[in-house]
Amino acid sequence: MFQAGDVIVCGSHGVCRVEKVGPISSAAADRDRIYYTLKPLYERGSVVFTPVDNQKMVIRPVISREEALRLIDGMRDAEGLGIQDEKKREEGYKEALKTCRAEELVRMMKTIYARGRSRAARGKKATDADSRYLKLAEDYLFGELAVSLDLDRDQVKAFIRERIGREED
Asked: Which SMART domains does this UniProt record tie to the protein (predicted)?
């Protein structure tokens, strides 16, 4: 169980600080359950309440600095998602996001970057879905890496570029 003050990753809310652990006073809450009161770091004014024993939402610790550096160092060699069926592409993106795993976000981003380069070579723009899912993946991944590396979230992309020595969209 996490404690007040811990920084965690929580489902679609991204990186959150545990503000409180205990029962909550809400008509919708089960008074016999223990809840996390979470404050998303990158959603201003938002608070999340979730049961400590919630099995439906991914709640995990933020990766360590060493894990973050290993992840970044492996980005160049990371595989894309390998989605062959164009009709299942968006479903693959949703599944990658749902895992809340940094490695899956990297794979998703690589897939979208490759699609973007391929479309640009044919004189086409990125699709709205690709742009939307890339933004989500970057927000979640860069938020977690910012905490792990003690950076501002808007510094993470430049840090990655410098570390792996190549430009990426």
From this structure: CarD_TRCF (SM01058)
Output the DSSP codes for 108-169. Answer: HHHHHHHHHHHHHHTT-PPPHHHHHHHHHHHHHHHHHHHHHHT--GGGHHHHHHHHHTS---
Among candidate residues 70, 137, 68, 130, the one with its CA nearest the CA of residue 99: 137
Token representation of residue 154: 């808007």
Kindly report, residue by residue over 8-19, the tens digit of the pLDDT.
999 989 999 999
- HSE-CB for 17 with a 13 A CA cutoff: 10
Q: Residue 22: helix, strand or coil by DSSP?
A: strand
Report pTM. Answer: 0.89
Straight-line distance from the first to the last Cα atom of the chain, in angstroms, rounded to the nearest whole number: 38
Q: Compute CA 86 distance to the chain's CA centroid, rounded to the nearest angstrom.
A: 23
Q: Which residues pair with 35 in a beta bridge?
A: 22, 51
User: Torsions phi, psi of 120, nearest 5?
Assistant: -60, -40
